[in-house]
Specification:
Elements: E1 2-10, E2 17-26, E3 29-35, H1 39-45, E4 56-62, E5 75-79, E6 84-87, H2 91-107, H3 109-129
Antiparallel strand pairs: 1-2, 1-6, 2-3, 3-4, 4-5, 5-6
Length: 130
């Protein structure tokens, strides 16, 4: 599953953000950043090592509605060993991100048995109700 999000970088502590491109998330990895033409400014301002984005794990933090930034953005995406991007997620995009993380979690060998037990217990509970 792939998800494309328009993302911004926060340039200063006042909350001003700068649109920098489209971040492509695939499963549990931030795969690529399709940079806008204005990204050269960011490269000069921050670090040439940070661009292009290397595929890496990411974490999503949902901002509370009382946060000052939440009027424009409702989530941050922190790439491991990389930048923190700000974005506005729809309910559908939130669901897709949660689903991608859940599918990736269930494919890990140490979690496969937990999924099997959950499915078995659910089937037995349904049979028990009948």
């Amino acid at each position: 599953m792939e998800l494309r999000l328009e993302v911004d970088l926060k340039l200063d502590k006042s909350g001003n953000s700068f649109p920098c491109g489209t971040l492509i998330l695939m499963n549990n990895k931030a795969v690529k950043l399709i940079e806008h033409s204005n990204t050269n400014f960011i490269i000069q301002e921050f670090s040439k090592e940070a661009f292009p984005i290397k595929p890496n794990n990411y974490e999503v933090e949902y901002l509370h509605k009382y946060n000052l930034i939440s009027e424009v953005h409702n989530a941050t995406i922190q790439i491991k060993d990389g930048f923190k991007f700000y974005t506005k997620l729809s309910q559908n995009e939130k669901f897709k991100i949660k689903w991608m993380v859940l599918v990736d979690w269930s494919k890990q060998p140490e979690n496969t048995w937990k999924v099997f037990i959950f499915i078995t217990a659910t089937i037995l509970a349904i049979i028990g109700l009948i």
